[in-house]
Amino acid sequence: MSSLGPLRFVPMFRRYVWGGRKLGTFLGKPIGEGEDYAESWEVVDHGEDQSIVAAGPSAGAPLGQLVRERGGDLFGRHAPLPQFPLLFKYLDAQRDLSVQVHPDDARAALLSPPDFGKTEAWVIVAAEPESWIYAGLKRGFDRAALAREVSQGASELSLHRFHPQVGDCVFIPAGAVHAIGSGLVVAEIQQSSDTTWRLHDWNRLDASGRPRPLHVEAALEAIDYSLGPLSPARPAPTERPHVSRLVECDKFVLDRWTFNSSDFIDDDNRFHILSVLAGEVAISGDPTGRALSAGETALLPAVRDATELIPRQGAIMLDAYLP
Known about the structure:
Blueprint: E1 7-10, E2 12-20, H1 22-25, E3 37-43, E4 45-46, E5 49-50, E6 52-53, H2 63-75, E7 86-93, E8 99-101, H3 105-108, E9 120-127, E10 133-137, H4 143-151, E11 159-162, E12 169-172, E13 178-180, E14 184-191, E15 197-200, H5 216-222, E16 236-237, E17 243-248, E18 253-259, E19 263-265, E20 272-283, E21 292-293, E22 297-300, E23 307-321
Antiparallel strand pairs: 1-6, 1-22, 2-3, 3-7, 4-5, 7-14, 8-15, 9-12, 9-14, 10-11, 10-13, 16-17, 17-18, 18-23, 19-23, 20-21, 20-22, 20-23
């Protein structure tokens, strides 16, 4: 059986009222007409939402098909898994996202149909000076205090917020109240889930002139009130001087590579999601024959030889994988 090799996918776009044009103008994505391109799903296997292989022997195959037919090659030490467990995307927040919370695994498993919980992490790719990140509750806010603010249409007054800088990483565990503010482009790694409960949507209307649905009671129940304010993660050193650890949790690990000379992703029997934030990175065995540029993503299957990465133009790259 031939190796899967590095996998490149066709990006899948989501259009929401808060989106804009920067997925195309800033990241070079092939978006169409319109001013509301909000998300580019780079790697996804979630029901009908499927990344499609763009090149190579598996071209045209959905990621879910590879999970079913080549799960051992794809997952290695983590096989078997029923679906690809992580979702990687880019977001363009032309306007504020809703104030929201995601359930943990236990709550999401009770949904119909069941879903994963949603723990996620953001890396700020572009930011305007007055952009905000809303992450966690201010100290002293319990359920009763938050419910009071929500009932008065002022839930944002309960939220911890800060001005992010390019390169900041913000870890958002399931149960944390959060919102991405306007003027930000964000790379996000998350569990493969699409369950969101909105507390507040800034009193705005959708394209049909109606307010988007809120899920106040479900959100209030799902919030982990012990989390408190959330701030940017402090990068931790690794055994490689050019690699820093941004997040390490039970759902995923996220590293950032900042490098000018070639290096290898070891044959560690686990998959790796690689996405370039700056410069270019050529991957040995890439079926497209061209380097990843800023905003592009590849998936390395678990079963493979050590994979050489060749950076150009002072590359910065994210590497996400299972613990």
